[in-house]
Design brief:
Chains A, B: Its EC number is 4.1.2.-. Two copies of one chain form a homodimer. Chain A is α/β, with parallel strands linked by helices. Chain A has three domains: about 350 residues, Rossmann fold (3-Layer(aba) Sandwich), CATH 3.40.50; about 210 residues, 3-Layer(aba) Sandwich (Rossmann fold), CATH 3.40.50; about 190 residues, Rossmann fold. Chain A is built from 26 helices and 22 strands. In chain A, helix 2 packs parallel to helix 3, helix 13 packs parallel to helix 17 and helix 23 packs antiparallel against helix 25. The N terminus of chain A is likely disordered.
């Protein structure tokens, strides 16, 4: 199965490959130059200390492999007029992909201050990893990149994400052998069971074994070839193994073998796609192909110094970063650097003006076919607005507050089905086998789960093509969606709330990417990354403690306010309105937490739209302050806390009718923050208007209570804000027992009111005791019957205190 | 290679297997009973509605597979007198492992209120997933478990962690085919390149393909067998494939095949270990064996209802949770439940008192050989204190504050080498190829990286046996360490600060496990999970933005205060003292953040010990308040913020000598919190003593500034606390430019003092402008030279304001 090609390709002549080699040398020269030089870029004079950067920062080891692959891909892209995207798994090999972008002219198009001449070359070198310059990785600043690669593991999932619904696109994905040890990458191989061979594009995984990480060998470089190939076959690929460049092998020989393998792979991809298209046209089942995968084994730091200070460097971990560390102060190092640079024969590559020779320029594909210039790597260029059907058609009828019950996510699902119908080729829903569990099953009336493995009778809404991608890996869901968004499409990721922490780190990287792109003029805005977190902390009746964690919100708000949004719609209509908004936004991360269990509904559609537009507001029907200053503010954010707060209001009405209570509901959590801290933040004046400046505020919050303090600590009334939320108390138990365990229940909220409003504690000690007794009653009922007491399980407004007072 | 055994084993008779089947039926009966019944446990009367629980919560689908494997493992454990540990990857199959623990008598030994009789059986049933009872998963409460399994992906890494340095232990690890889709599990297969076949125990991976997740098929169940087996071979295993129970196959036939396969596997493991021991004894290189791995394919919900309400249930995702949902209200469902329960023939399994028949009891291994009773699953029973060498021997000489420079982690590394030498069999260091990068390379004077793949010349401190485990997967580092700690050993995980977020979710689960175990009397305390986070946010000179995230601390402090500790030692001696403390603690998660770059040293060893013992304190040599009330408090936490704060003090001394400044350094971050919130929290009196009640506090903090507010918002002086920290500004740049980008630099701290101390702003406007100019000067220098200006790069106390005033 595996091929080690030995024949030169038919159509490529020796001189073609010599040109290709020259192009590769140019890219390598430009890479080394970026790492080392700040002057004398063309080596027109002997290298002096002041030509060398004082701080040498960058990663050489992976770079020559990246440029080698780029050069060979260019050969076939040009010939086949192929649309291609290059994913740089070893993203720290930034110099390599910056160099190729400059060689292809894209860099100078994006950055006019870095023209394709000697002056531009000097600036290209100087700016790299230099204060005020560009980062050392394949960053947002890098043309052609959608993948930073500083945090390893996500290359192949980004590649698949880019390929979905892009049938004409070839995504060449370079995977470092260090990265291949990570979990997310290891899970990514199964993407071939999800990519449709006609409707989706082609991903070509290129596992680049250069053998070493920072200071140690890699696992995959140290297992026998037969195991390596078994592994690739086991993942469903047809592996091609190419090894070259060791023991001083002439690169030309490697070029010849590589060109041959690349031709075979390209031909095979074409055959696979043609056959799948035939199957589809004939109405046959489209079978999962054995896509090719390339395993490339070359020395780490190939073409770099063989030995430095008596240590082997090329082909070892010592070439990971900067092989020659003292080139400014150590004359021998500097001489070796100059010698190294001259091995690329720059005088053959660049003309007197420092411009690459015309023959080299001619090797690059044209315009957007250049991988450095493909619009797929600047997704905003391709982005089409979603066609969003009228969500109000799915409004839940709310004759009065507290009616229902209805499932918020269930309601949303019906609208999402409409969204799917209206956007059949640029909207996808990702989830770890939880689409139905999170009650979005209505989308299956409009589409299926896409799966290119064996489908058998009894499978529920699984077919070859569908808008829903389900795989039990939050990493893949996140990575696929990121790749899909970064290439200009739309989607959402639905997930159990607790387990979204699995992708905390991926969120970080995407958030950082978005933050950086906001300051890069040529990067066009992309669709926001939308989370729908359901099966949340308060309703894990059958899974208990391990499934209870509302802390993703805390994690998210550490990132730049300009890209982060958090919504806690309390019912179905507010969820509809919120999600309609989220799907229209750009360049944000929207976190929406919503319950799936049937619950009481509070707002009519019109009220919901108005409330969501404000993001925060008084619910007059649950307040009796009549617009004047209340005695106490009950605030709430989240569906379960809202129910408890409203139920507390009804208790207060009955027992303390003279108390002036204001209920404030928060949908848009960032409204709590200062307007100077977050674009959605309320002014102090508005905040004070809602929360008063001196009255007690009892805040029933969905998550960890400290977050409310973190958001409001600058507010004038902060000392009076008392927050109830999840404090890591939980197990397999009933819904009301859960809120009681965390003191978020209605009875405890009433106790909090009594404790905090001046003058109530003594006068209403009996009522407070009654609340304590009510908690005990509920606790006992639950322990005995295994269910919540009926009055708390199916709460309705007590007749006497109905919502319309 | 793959074996599908068809012959009955030689040594096991038909009647042995009939008994085994009875034991299995008993375990299944007890499992179904837990999910459904609250009364009539032995079905001595027809099932009535009130016998059935009102809320049916639990997962049936995976359970019969778990009990089947347990039964067959017991057969060989008993015969071989094998020490064994069972890891329940599908941990939500809790009823199964609770049932086997009860059958083996362990459950009643741990919980006297659940004896091995009819009354105990009723309690066993009632308590499951019942308020006030036990969780539905294989929880800390479950005897024999070290693995909750609610968050999928970590079974095989826990298994390997348990096996390290436990040569006599067999760890049978059941991996669900849902779990197998996750990244962490996919990465775990490479464990066989790290487990030593003589010094470490044996892990037997059992991939259980029951075909379905919650509502969808699994990927691995839908690929051809040859791919599946190639995958296992590619991972370096010898796979055994056993399929049974489909199309109504008699379980006895499956038992026969399973017994044969299990015998083969056990024999093969013995051969492998014997051969490795011979190699070792002969002084030969110990080769990596092809360990066996079992792929077991049985129907989901095997032996459960075949069909319910016209839908197929056994063998489909519909048996994932509760196959019969309305057994209390729907008479047909209830009848079907009774019929189902009776298929296990309880009258043959339990005597008149509800006690399992003696023949069944006799099948369990004896005492601690029972998997439910193994001390390896209650690691505290096996825990030996570390022998901790005197860390003061590694003290850095600090003739005066600001001397040095020295590397904190480099200094720690030398002591850790001593720890390794003194504890050759129960202490390990895990890291993602960053041990040297984090400057712990001194440990390689005492030990090597352990690796059972190909080792070649030039590899640096890599050998077959060593205390350091390096794999480029933070998931594996975390999971291996968890497994190692849970089975009673010690260790630490060193990691780049930013990428520890990769295991946020794993930390959550371990923290929850520790929280729960504190309330389970028979769970003995285990060693703390120790993080050493280095290569931190402020010193990512060559990696930039993607490598900058100090938010793990924020994540950690959301968990229960009783198990969470966070330390930010400012220099080498404080790091030594801190880590010595951490390695002595139990049942905590200790997060230690420390720099690796050479930096100024502040405290002598004696001072460091005293300071770390307090956790927070005034540095008198950096203060001039002479014990009286200062005009301003400069607080700092973390090495870089401490340097900036001290440098700010020196500027203030020079320019505003009359200003009374107090410098407070925080090592133990939890000291900031209220003593009612955290056991380490300061009393208000002590806090006020340090931070005053009304003076401005300028707080230079290592991480996101909001955390300091979250920890101190209840303090009297909170309104005057002004925090500088990381606010997501960063790129590839110099160290001082990084602190300037985030306004944490000394000049900005002085500006903050001028802005906040009443009376300074107008009077010292010129000084403020000077600070602004200083920042501009540094910025310009860096942009021009690519390095920090010498005076900020190599800061020393200016002569005139030396530390000893």
């Amino acid at each position: 199965m595996a091929v080690t090609a030995t024949n030169a390709p038919d159509t490529t002549t020796r001189s073609d490959l010599e040109l290709l080699d020259a192009w590769w040398r140019a890219a390598n020269y430009l890479s080394v130059g970026q790492i080392y030089l700040m002057d004398n870029p063309l080596l027109r004079e002997p290298l002096r200390p002041e030509h060398v950067k004082p701080r040498l920062l960058g990663h050489w080891g992976t770079t020559p492999g990246l440029t080698f692959l780029w050069a060979h891909l260019n050969r076939v892209i040009t010939r086949e007029e192929q649309d291609a995207l290059y994913i740089t798994g070893p993203g720290h090999g930034g110099p390599g992909v910056v160099a190729t972008a400059w060689l292809e002219g894209t860099y100078s198009e994006r950055y006019s201050q870095v023209p394709q001449d000697a002056e531009g070359m000097q600036e290209l070198f100087r700016q790299f990893s230099f204060p005020g310059g560009i980062p050392s990785h394949a960053a947002p600043e890098t043309p052609g990149s959608i993948h930073e690669g500083g945090e390893l593991g996500y290359s192949l999932m980004h590649a698949a994400g880019a390929a979905f619904d892009n049938p004409d696109l070839l995504v060449a994905c370079v995977i470092g052998d260090g990265e291949a040890e990570t979990g997310p990458l290891a899970a990514s191989w199964q993407q071939n069971k999800f990519l449709h061979p006609v409707h989706d594009g082609t991903v070509l995984p290129i596992l680049h074994l250069n053998g070493y990480k920072i200071a140690n060998s890699t696992v995959l470089a140290r297992i026998p070839d037969d195991e390596l190939l078994d592994q690739m076959r086991g993942h469903g690929y047809r592996p091609y193994l190419l090894e070259g460049g060791f023991d001083g092998e002439d690169p030309m020989a490697v070029h010849e073998r590589m060109a041959a393998v690349m031709d075979e792979i390209v031909a095979e991809i074409a055959r696979i796609r043609a056959r799948a298209a035939e199957q589809l046209a004939a109405g046959e089942d489209v079978q999962r192909p054995r896509w090719p995968a390339l395993v490339l084994r070359t020395p780490k730091g190939w073409t770099g110094p063989k030995e430095v200070d008596g240590h082997r460097v090329e082909g070892t971990f010592r070439s990971h970063q900067v092989p020659l560390a003292e080139t400014r102060t150590n004359e021998a190092h500097r001489a070796q650097l100059e010698q190294w640079l001259r091995t690329y024969r720059p005088e053959e590559l660049f003309d007197a003006d420092g411009r690459p020779h015309a023959e080299l320029l001619a090797l690059a594909p044209r315009g957007p076919k250049r991988m450095s210039a493909t619009p797929h790597a600047n997704g905003g260029e391709l982005l089409r607005d979603l066609r969003l059907p009228d969500f109000t058609r799915h409004a839940v009828d709310v004759p009065e507050p507290g009616s229902g019950p209805a499932s918020a996510t269930g309601t949303l699902g019906a609208w999402l089905a409409d969204v799917v119908r209206a956007n059949p080729d640029n909207f996808r829903i990702m989830g770890p086998d939880e689409t139905a569990s999170n009650r979005l099953q209505a989308v299956f009336e409009a589409t299926d789960r896409q799966f290119i493995g064996h489908i058998q009778s009894g499978d529920d809404h699984v077919s070859r093509a569908g808008r829903v991608l389900e795989v039990l890996s939050e990493h893949l869901c996140q990575g696929w969606l990121e790749g899909y968004l970064l290439t200009g499409r739309h989607g959402l990721f639905n997930c159990y709330e607790a387990f979204i922490h699995i992708v905390d780190s991926m969120f970080n990287q995407h958030a950082k990417w978005l933050t950086a792109t906001r300051h890069i003029p040529w990067r066009r805005p992309i669709a926001s990354l939308n989370y729908l977190l359901s099966s949340h902390v308060w309703r894990q009746d059958h899974n208990g403690f391990s499934h209870q964690d509302p802390g993703f919100i805390d994690h998210v708000v550490n990132k730049k306010a300009e890209i982060v949004r958090v919504y806690l719609p309390p019912d179905a209509n507010t969820l509809l309105s919120t999600y309609d908004h989220c799907l229209r936004t750009r360049n944000y991360v929207n976190v929406v937490v919503a319950g799936k269990n049937p619950g009481p509904q509070w707002l009519t559609m019109d009220e919901a739209i108005a409330h969501c537009t404000r993001g925060i507001g008084v619910w007059p029907w649950a307040s009796n302050d009549d617009g004047a200053e209340p005695d106490v503010v009950l605030a709430c954010a989240g569906d379960v806390p809202t129910l408890e707060a409203v139920a507390a209001v009804s208790l207060l009405r009955r027992h303390l009718p003279e108390l002036k209570v204001r209920l404030v509901n928060v949908v848009d959590l960032m409204r709590l923050q200062d307007e100077r801290e977050h674009p959605h933040g309320l002014s102090d004046r508005d905040f004070d208007g809602l929360f008063t400046t001196d009255k007690p505020v009892i805040f029933a919050y969905h998550g960890y209570p400290w977050l409310i303090h973190r958001l409001t600590y600058r507010r004038r009334n902060h000392p009076n804000i008392h927050v109830r939320g999840y404090k890591e108390e939980g197990t397999t138990t009933t819904p009301f027992d859960m809120v009681m365990l965390n003191d978020l229940d209605r009875f405890h909220l009433v106790m909090d009111v009594i404790d905090r409003v001046p003058g109530l504690a003594v006068k209403h000690a009996a009522l407070r005791q009654h609340m304590v007794d009510e908690r005990l009653r509920c606790r006992r009922y639950t322990r005995e019957h295994g269910t919540d007491a009926p009055d708390v399980a199916d709460w309705v407004w007590p007749d006497s205190t109905g919502p319309r007072m």
